[in-house]
Amino acid sequence: MTIDNTPIVADEAVVPEKAPESEGRLILRRFLGNKFAVASIVIVILIIAFSISAIGIGPIPGWWKYGFKALNPQVNAGNPTISLVPQWLGGKGISLGDHPFGQDRIGKDYFAMVMRGIQNSALVMVVLGGIASFVGVVVGAIAGYFRGVIDAILMRITDVFIVIPALVIGSVVGHWVGGLGAPLLAIMLGFFSWMGIARLVRGEFLSLREREFVEAARVAGASDRRIIFKHILPNAIGVVIVSSTLIMATAILLETALSFLGYGIQAPDVSLGGLISSNESAFQTRPWLFWWPGFFIVTLALLVNFVGDGLRDAFDPRHRRFKLRAMREQIPEPAEEAKL
Amino acid sequence: MVSFILRRILVSILILIAASFLMYMLVAYSSDPLANLRSSSSPNKDRLIADLVSRLQLDVPPPLRWGLWLGGAAKCLIPFANSCDLGSTISNAQVTDILPQALLSTVQLVTLALILAIVFGIMIGIVTALRQYSGLDNTVTFISFFLYSLPAFLVAVLLKEFIAIGFNNFLRDPVVSWFWILLIGIVVGAIWQSLIGGEARRRLIVFAISGAGTAVLIWLMSATGWFEKPGIGPVGMVVLIAAIAIGATALMAGLQNRKALITAGINAVIAIASYFAMQPLFAISSIGTLIILGIVALIVGLVSGYLVGGYDRGQNLRVGAVTAVLSSALILVDRAMQAWPTYLGDVNNRPIATIGSSTPNLGGDVWVTGIDSFTHLALPTVALLLISFASYTRYSRAGLLEVMNQDYIRTARAKGLPERTVVIRHAFRNMLIPLTTLVAFDVGALLGGAIITERVFGIPGMGNLFSSALGPGDINPVMGYFLVIAAMAILFNFLADLAYASLDPRVRVR
Hints:
The complex is a heterodimer. By secondary structure, chain A is mainly α. Chain A has a single domain, classed as MetI-like fold (Orthogonal Bundle). Chain A is 65% helix and 0% strand. In chain A, helix 4 packs antiparallel against helix 5 (148-163). Chain B has a domain at 2-99 and 472-484. Chain B starts with a helix and ends in a 7-residue tail after the last helix. At the A-B interface, helix 5, helix 6, helix 10, helix 11 and helix 12 of A face helix 1, helix 6, helix 7, helix 15 and helix 18 of B.
């Protein structure tokens, strides 16, 4: 599923004389071999760090001079002042200017607003992903490990939550707590997004608990707790990491969609989706109000998806791909041998 | 089997009840339906509040109110009694009255989008799987990742601002400039050369021929004012129908299969003859006539395939049916194009609408109203299409790659079957089995309406019903919406299980 089609070298690179590598190091090396995914994760972290350093976080101020709530006098009719073409190419030189991303209709600095939107998106992404994974792992592990009645009850509860589409339950939850700030919204959305992971983890547990190493641990007298945490969970962690990364990508889209509908983060706080929604009518006169948040939503979601895809490839070496061309090329060989 | 179905239905109803309780509590405790009235300045404010409270039973605590609502909803299970009671909205309309209208306009919106997404998604998935790791495959993979990461509202707003307004402006003076002709030619050439594949020389030839052909065609269309008065014309119809016949045969049976070629040829001749014969009938047609004609075309295709016979009648039937149906669709498109100038006059030369699902007070025959709903639904359909298209491409690509690794494919190759037969008859059919699940889920989910697409394009469908009722805390329409989509989700989930079990003999239902 990757764009990058350089072969994954980890399998061949194991030198027999050295001590065998641990599974974790092997996976890490396979992931680091995928340059596309590594570049994606680096860029995501850089974007988030940049947004935090620009306007600060909480009471700590950043290096940018305007806040995202302050009204400023209109400069240059609100046009973006950022300039990226160097002087020797006939541009104005590389500079930020007074309002690099322009200003909105009432004069707020758009750069600060977009940075705040990125911060909120990142917050929702991390918190929602974390809570959904945690709840999903707990429910899935208990259901899959203990089976029987507990499993039936937990899975029916999962079914109840899964019947309601994500955007619908998200709107209802956002309508409920959206006005109380981004952190609470992220936490509550997390408690309504764990179902997919719970099902996956349960499946993994159901198959892993029948394996010999679990049997051996049980015979040796290990407690349920120890078997779950020390023996089964480490073997199921790949599924969890991959799907929580993919949940994070959808979390960005969910939060922006909710804010677009008006059920997400409420003004005066800023969300990238809310910025697009409130400037939809200004598209013809001030298109940049639309482009900057749109660009960052797509970039963040796309990069996180790439990271998730790279992780999936790293955790699942069974992805041995079929190559039609390779098979076609093999066909002449036996024919030539036959002639000889 | 019967016990499996009964058990599933019972469990589904219990899940539905529990989920409705969850939903009711969340909505009831998160919103205040009286907020609007409280802040109003009307002199009889208190009386209005009291009215609303007694009508919606707002003095009853939510858990009990949910019980009352459930009692009303349970009456829907009584067949033919028509005693459904889902409560009323704040503005005193019965939910049972507004739900069917909303469902109808959602069905109208999503049907075409779903069909197109499935057809194109599977086609492109197959091609990319067969050309794995080629430039085409990597490009499509990147595009589908991009579409995954594209928020629906961004797509919808961009389509509205660029395609709709851009196309309408273009129609004011429909001449394509040289820059665009060249660009389109180059893009089309690049797509064709990567689809055909092969070594550099062959690719270059394909690129040159298809690119130049497209550029000349667009130049001709632009120079002859085709965009104002579109139409295919008799010569074009004959050529295109012949191409459909040959294409269908080549893809499904191979051109050396005489019987299939004869079937396709018969259907093509019938289609061309009826194109000329039917024009007077089309002028007075209604929707019903057209549906009957479509069914007749299908039957003609099947019967001709059966009569031609040969060693593989099933294949002939398929070739005949596909040729007949595609040709009739082409005839319909041609007829609709003839009504285009009339429609342009009716809407002041700005055909692509950005809001609503039909032009109010538009008269005209079935063709004009047909074009009208096409121009209204085109953009929302594209918006929906782009998003679900990506997942179909990914799934069918992965599915085909997995099937191609199976032993029976190697066996098929080993016994000397042509590559087309291996892909179409052995791999393609087995690849479709897991896709049925995805289709069933998608149908269930899409009937719930596209909340965002409907909102951006102002279509009065299910999604709009939900999002406009949630804001003021209008709980009954929200619950009515929820009931429909949850029942749909459960139903299609169930159908997916049954379909899977009947298609794949390795799966058994217990």
